[in-house]
Amino acid sequence: MLNSRMKIILRELMAVQSPITGKFLANINQVTSRTTRDDVKNLDALLADHGASIDAIMGQGYQLHITDEAQFRDYLQTLSITNDANVPKTPEERIAYVIKRLLLYDAYIKLDDLADEIYVSKSTIQNDLIEVKKVLSAYDIVVESRPNYGLKVNGNEFKMRYCMAEYVFDRRGKIGERWDGDASQFNLIDKEILDTIYAIIISQIKAHQITLSDIAINNLLIHMAIAYKRIKSGYHVTLYQAEIKEIIEQKEYQVAKEIVSEVEEKLQVDFPQEETAYIAIHLLGTKMLSQTTSGGKVVEQVMDQEILNIVTNALEQIEAELNLGIKEDKELIIALSLHLKPAVNRYKYGMNIRNPLIEDIKKNYPLAFEAGIIAGLAIEKQTKTIIDENEIGYLTLHIGAAMERRKLISDAKRCLIVCASGLGTAKLIYYKLRSQFGSSLDIIGTTEYYKLHQYNLNEIDFIVSSIPIEENLPVPVIEVNAILGNQDIEKIEKVVIDNKQHVFTYFQEARTFLQKEFATKEEALAFMHSKLLEKGYVDPDFLPAIYEREKVAPTSFGNLIAIPHPITPHSNETFLSICTLKKPISWNDKPVQFICVLSVKKNSQEDLQPMYELLGNIIDSPSIVQNLIKAGTYEEFMKMLVEA
């Protein structure tokens, strides 16, 4: 009978082609090497009757050897290769699980086996496979189906690794800790090896005076760990010689060579030239800026006319549609140019990039996110690439910082910002604080966590940090979310600037519909569109334009709110129209009870900042939303709004 440790050992042996050391298996099960030897011996005896054995290879470890594929498959059907506590329960969890299994298993997997592993029917797995294939196709990975054998994935090794980075590693760990992967199911690599690679990356970027955000460092760590794992398993990336030649000419390639050289020496692995180029692409695909030795301004290395034209065009599109007044912001132009240069490299080499802040960005900066979508569409058109929601989130950080900068009152007091997410997020926090606290606060700088020691903390009053800081520091640390919400502002200072707006300008009775009952978002939007069309506020194409915008990214931002709007202006005046519901409806898997249709007039020259700030205040406050939903009359609604 298999015990839980033996199941884990079998799972690990099934997931790789190369031998696995006894130490690695002992670490996973948190037992001694002797216990592991006994477990392997007992497992081998059990497998002898089921078409497989475990070979002990001198100096390398243990390897699964399948002698009878069909017999072994039959045996697997009788086993649960998952721990009950980790059985995926939702469709999303099942899809992620199936993707992991396909990516990490070299042989064919039968649908029946997959169904048995996670206690669902074969038809359920077949339905899940539709989404699995869609996800994998984004990486040009094909799911092959072979009668009597099952399923197997095939694709470019380069793309396979990027897909693994998203679906095999669990990236939900705290910044400042290493992401060790999903230890319960698909642990890929020994923590010692991860720590070794991390130390090498840190020492090299310091030696070359390179600034990388903490998230960028963790991304590089994960991808190097995957490269190490895949090389050990006998896989290598392939690049066209022309691409290698182009990469070798970049200075990032020299840095990659030194990183790789140290990894080879310490981990006894050989990285071929293609693998070194692969690491260089990661450096090209992150925000990599050299700093002057005096620690002064960042050298603007990556500005060029092509990028500048792309940025200028994107900002003109934002201005035409939202009139935010940020088109001439020089700091925004530089920030977007610095961001887009490496981003273009990411698009060129088909690299995915994860944005762990995306949900917070959409919720706390919906207007900046709208501007990010407009910028993304403009950039797509010019670069002929696809810009996904994660990338739009990063554009949003810079645009949001410019919007906060526009509200700036004055400068001055003493605090330091520590942020894991790089320049975009740090600047966003910086300008949010300055706009909120004005002359009462002087932010002396922003830094990544690993560079905190470079500052003289005796010269500041407190630290504002978006990550937990466990060590004892000589000044107080105020921990905030990377995307500042109301509670974060209150933590920093009790007195918050109160900008009451002329709410009656935006909320008018003819466009306010309260306590309605609809079953779906389609019903609600159709109702609102018919009322607005009837009163002459919009044209007949207004509703299709709203759905066109919804396709790009849903406008349900959490907190029971959705702010649907057309992707381009479709009205002759700027207005808001409200519809509250007696019961929430599902809006792309988020409950919504407060619908605010937003329309900006064609060729608007108005200062819309007060309206946007008012909307932001509503989105930020669950209590305001709850009170507005309860209002039964327009008078009650406005009273709640004015008193909020």
Q: What fold name stands as the CATH topology of the largest domain? A: Arc Repressor Mutant, subunit A
Number of strands: 15
Strand-residue fraction?
5-15%
CATH class of the largest domain: Mainly Alpha
List the quaternary state of the chains: single chain
CATH architecture term of the largest domain: Orthogonal Bundle
Count of helix runs: 25
Largest sheet: number of strands, sense, barrel closure: 5 strands, mixed
Average pLDDT, all residues: 77
Q: pLDDT below 50 for ≥5 consecutive residues: which ranges?
A: 80-85, 169-188, 287-302, 494-501
End-to-end CA span: 64 Å
Q: How big is the Rg?
A: 27 Å
Lateral strand order in the biggest sheet: 11-14-15-13-12
Give the % helix: 40-55%
Number of domains: 5
User: Looking at the structure, what is the overall shape?
Assistant: globular
